[in-house]
Amino acid sequence: MSTISELQRLRTSTSPPRRRHNRAALFFLSPWLVGLVLITAGPVLASLVLSFTDYNLIQQPEFNGLENVQRMFTDDRLHHALGVTFLYVFVSVPLQLACALGLALLLDRGMRGLAFYRSVFYLPSLLGGSVAIAVLWRQVFGADGLINQALSLVGVAGRSWIADPGTALSTLIVLNIWTFGAPMVIFLAGLRQIPTMYYEAAAVDGASRSRQFWNITLPLLSPIIFFNLVLQIIHAFQSFTQAFVVSSGTGGPSDSTMFYTLYLYQRGFHNFDMGYASALAWLLLVIIGIFTALNFWASKRWVFYDD
């Protein structure tokens, strides 16, 4: 009984300071909580409601049930946008991660000015999604751009790469690959965490560098590869600025750069079909969720955790 009463006395004596600490914590968290409710949670719930309505931003929303979902099955332009987006994701993300890993392996060997090179290679990741870089990309791959000027030096006639349906999407894929800085820095940090004793033991056993890479580096780096893969897939599905600026918001020649997000934008802010655009936004959320879940399911087969 004495022990219980002592605990009650301690709880009573310490509760006022705890309450003061809780109030202080809530006070400092209040800007984030307000932003979460007004900027994130509120609009998300509003878009969910609007996805079941016919809404043009002027008149009051009219409930139409699953009509927006039914429209998706017969929307040929939506299907084309999905195909373009899937191709962009499936091609650019693996190539981007391969370039990031290769450069991280090169930098991990140690060289003079490592911090400088790391900063230079990381810079495109900071600017890759900006309007300025997208405008620059139009100048590089335009009819009179840098690529054609370089080709003219060897007697090759160029063309407008961003105006050709066969190459327009490839230019955006190259742009996404070029922004490999962020995953490269993460790969480099992961490589620094691999104990050198594994490589020393493998070298004593006569293992070649390629054998060490496949049997030591990749297995121990697989959690980092998985992390980068999930993040870059999500980022690629959400790509918008590049396609919008390079194609001037039209989707490019023959809709060759009509990303899903660009089509969503056109439906919502060009056609003022906000109800259908909200449904498209939720479909994108479902698609990203499915790919993320598949990655986590497949990770059990190839991701190795040291513990």
Give the topology, please.
Blueprint: H1 2-50, E1 53-54, E2 62-63, H2 67-74, H3 76-108, H4 114-127, H5 131-141, H6 146-152, H7 168-178, H8 181-192, H9 196-204, H10 209-237, H11 241-246, H12 260-270, H13 274-302
Antiparallel strand pairs: 1-2
Helix pairs in contact: 2-13, 3-7, 3-8, 3-10, 4-8, 8-10, 10-13, 12-13
Attribute tags:
307 residues; MetI-like fold; 2 strands; single chain; mainly alpha; 2 domains
Model description:
With 307 residues, the protein is mainly alpha-helical. It folds into two domains: 2-50, no CATH class; 73-302, MetI-like (MetI-like fold), CATH 1.10.3720.10. Helices cover 75% and strands 1% of the residues. It has 13 helices and two strands, in the order αββαααααααααααα. The chain has helices at residues 2-50, 67-74, 76-108, 114-127, 131-141, 146-152, 168-178, 181-192, 196-204, 209-237, 241-246, 260-270, 274-302; strands spanning 53-54, 62-63. A two-stranded antiparallel ribbon has the order 1-2. Strand 1 (53-54) and strand 2 (62-63) form a beta hairpin. Helix 10 packs antiparallel against helix 13.
